User: Fold this.
Amino acid sequence: MLKVKNLHASVEGKEILRGINFEVKPGEVHAIMGPNGSGKSTLASVLAGNEKFTVTEGEVEFEGKNLLDLSIEDRARMGLFLGFQYPVEIPGVTMANFMKIAVNEQRKFRGEEPLTAAEYLKMMREKAQIVELDTKLTSRAVNEGFSGGEKKKNEIFQMAMLDPKLAILDETDSGLDIDALRIVATGVTKLHTAENATVVITHYQRLLDYIVPDYVHVLYKGRIIYTGDRTLALKLEKEGYDWLINDSNE
Amino acid sequence: MELRDLIREMVPVKESLTLTASGERPYVAVDAAHLTVVVEAGVDAHLVVLHQEPKSAEVTIRLAEGASLTVNELFLAEAFASVTVAQGASSRLKLTAVELGSANASYTIDLAGRDAESEVNGVFLTADGEHARLAIRTNHLSADCRSRSIARGVAGGRSVGEFEGMVYVAKDAQRTDAEQQNRNLLLSDVARIETKPQLEIYADDVKCSHGATVGQMDQEAIYYMRQRGLDEPQARRLQIAGFVGDLVLHCNEDRLCEAVSALLEQKLSKM
Assistant:
């Protein structure tokens, strides 16, 4: 589904990603961990197509297409979803209206008819339940005045609405209390199927108690320096990154 | 429903109108050069003022004690309109002006009777080489009155948008509560916004606030929307619509709101 080969990217002339390699297959869950500043969020942004970053080398294949050639919106319409670390507020634009346009754009891209108002409302109600999102929030402006927990639930609600092939969740767990974390993580787990894949970027092992990864990658100074299974996350929680970093510096 | 059809259901007004009883149907004045409206005590009414031709218009409105009037003024052509409203005690005015291109609209509201309240909302959207001006002057002449004037402007292309606001509080107008706010969005490097929010206060027991901002499109929001599958023009349009939307949609009636929204959409597709 996703093949990342020797990906290098920089921002304002500073190289952040320095040769990333990994592959995601349908049905898999990958976790990307690593100390602050290692390039985790940059990797997510580059895959989503954020124009702040320049890809200087490497290839990314998504669903058989050259991802780096595609616009931000075409990547999204093809089924790449990014859960934002800091969801953006859009004053005056209701969540319901925003998602209606997004869902119908995706349908148009696939050659499907737009949803009727009734179909859309039904869909919205069903998907809101997955993350226990109060449907009243959908009539409010996007993320405006939402609490930290509501913003993150809202990201997963949008993920549910758009049913992506590949979801990249950038520190969706940060700033959540235990209950919100459980709801968000359970939501992500419910959305997981054998056909889609999830990449979770996280600092903490606690999210991985709910979302069990097949692979855990450790990113350090713009490279994946170690890949293990779920037990790696537990070891990192206990021992930190030092043992890996010292290894990789040798 | 289109605006044209909606207007046919309203009561047409030519030059003068005196309202002695509240009615269900809104009144509409289309391209009136001179218009005088008197709303008598306790009467509640809705007036739509439409400019479809590039003419000048002078509108004089008087609200008697306890009268209440909602006005929607819509500029579809480069008209020059000057509107004055004299408000008696405990009267209520809610006026919304929308300039969808070049136009010059100026409002003078006299809060002449105690406990009168006015809410004036103005929006202008200019593209290409258009020039819109919006001036709102509120005169607090009596004690215990409240006023709110909120203006939003969006200027694209090489256009110019001007806002001039003035809240005047006379010496005897104690316990005035006035708010004046102007926010603008610049869509291009060569578009221009000129804003002049002013206060002139002679009473000593008042609550007055004013502010003005000029900003650009929020690129983070555009990125966020594109990541959900909207293309860039769609994302920009949605952001602009969100910026002016809640003001434009102060129209007292759903069908009028829809008609105005549709016109707004049309305008946005050209910005």
Q: What stands out?
A: Chain A has a mean pLDDT of 92. The helical segments of chain A are 40-48, 72-77, 95-109, 117-130, 148-162, 178-191, 230-239, 242-249.
